[in-house]
Specification:
Helices cover about 70% and strands about 0% of the residues. It is mostly helical. Helix 3 (about 40-70) packs across helix 4 (about 80-100). It starts with a helix and ends in a 12-residue tail after the last helix.
């Protein structure tokens, strides 16, 4: 039984005996009956939950896309409609940027992207840049 329901039955200071008496008094009281839902009510609730999840997922996708475009300097207003209006021009500018740096060709093929990743790691000297250096 949740503690918030037992608080009304606790008579004196907090102790194990007082808590046990409060629980015993609370259990003796008649509780409120909970109505059983019909299959139709459960189906409607399920549909509402699914729609709520879809809206949350859509919002996540929009915010992620807005964040990625912001890295390219593309700013747009809040809301789905503002994004819908601004996206064609923004994507065209980002595509032009990618073509200038020949990223489209690599992005279209998996092997090309792997090759580009290896080359960029080697040029940065990051992980995967060849043999490990051993201590002597």
């Amino acid at each position: 039984m949740p503690a918030q329901f037992l608080k009304a039955f606790n008579i004196r200071n907090k102790s194990d005996v007082a808590d046990a008496k409060a629980i015993w008094l609370a259990v003796q009281q008649p509780c409120k009956a909970v109505a059983v839902k019909t299959e139709m009510q459960q189906a409607v609730l399920m549909m509402h939950r699914q729609r709520e999840q879809l809206v949350k997922f859509r919002t996540m996708q929009i915010n992620g896309l807005r964040g990625m475009l912001a890295e390219f300097g593309e700013a747009m207003g809040k809301g789905r409609s503002a994004l819908g209006k601004a996206i064609p021009d923004a994507l065209m500018r980002v595509e032009d940027f990618c073509r200038r740096y020949r990223l489209i060709r690599y992005a279209n093929s998996g092997r090309g992207l792997k090759r580009w990743t290896k080359k960029s790691r080697r040029s940065r000297g990051g992980c995967g840049s060849g043999r490990r250096k051993t201590r002597q």
